[in-house]
Amino acid sequence: MTSYEQILYDVADGVATVTLNRPDKLNASTERMEKEVQAAMAQAEADDAVRVIVLTGAGRGFCAGADLQDLAKVASASSPADLERVLKDRFAGRQRADARPDFQKAYSYFAAVGKPILGAINGSAVGLGLVIALYCDLRFASDQARFGTAFSRRGLIAEHGISWMLPRLVGVSHALDLLFSARLIDASEALRMGLVNRVLPQAELMDGVRAYARELATMVSPRSLRVMKKQVYEALFQTLAEATDVANVEMMKSFGSADFREGVAHFVEKRPPAFTGK
User: Fold this and answer.
1) Among candidates 158, 125, 154, which has minimal Cα distance to 139?
2) Which of 20, 64, 154, 231 is 20 to 30 A from 183 (CA-CA)?
3) Between vectors from CA 124 to CA 119 and to CA 129, what angle results, nearest 5°?
4) Residue 139: beta bridge partners?
5) How do 138-142 and 125-126 pair as beta strands?
6) Could you give the CA distance from residue 186 to residue 266 in angstroms, rounded to a whole number?
7) Would you state the CATH architecture of domain 7-217?
8) In terms of Cα–Cα distance, which of 164, 126, 119 is closest to 142?
């Protein structure tokens, strides 16, 4: 079992919960935390007992952005070469042969993880914290959550590919508003924009997210989830004809799968499913 210092990792009922665990710093992200999250995602993906991943934060915040000491290290770089050395490891994603290069960058690698990643946004998700939330497949927010880009107020730019991802979630105008102004928005405005899928009372957030995660873990085919997730993210780079051709190939493969046979059998026999992911 992997030992972690800045995150918590737990598996129950088919759900792996990854918790950013620097509550005294509102879970501000460090290089170590980023590497540990990457390792935890790989651990959860490789574990057949895990069918869904939940990512959340300990305490009052989800992630308040990059740790200020890390930012100070970047700001103090004395030359472009020095800066490149500081940032090289931070910008590395998870390298894998089965994913397009777009999904092997820092945090974009979430899209290549073959299991759903649900963000349980329990508090502020600002700057890098917003980036992390955006790359989750679905986002459930506490009614106490706050969201902001922060970059323009730090002399920075739209980091880690969110200039691509954010408009796809909220549209170009909303994306530019959030990036230009760096203003904080509350959970209700985030819901109206389409930035989050659902808003829950703070006290009910984790129960609600875990209930949804358990439903995915027990009632739907892991194989279907894996293939559909890849279809959707790959389709962002495809024409309709290309996406349809891929769907036709995958449909034929699904007809030969054990999960298809179980999907029909449990429905006909009126019993809970016993999917294997095969």
Assistant:
1) 125
2) 20
3) 60
4) 119
5) unpaired
6) 42
7) Alpha-Beta Complex (3.90)
8) 119
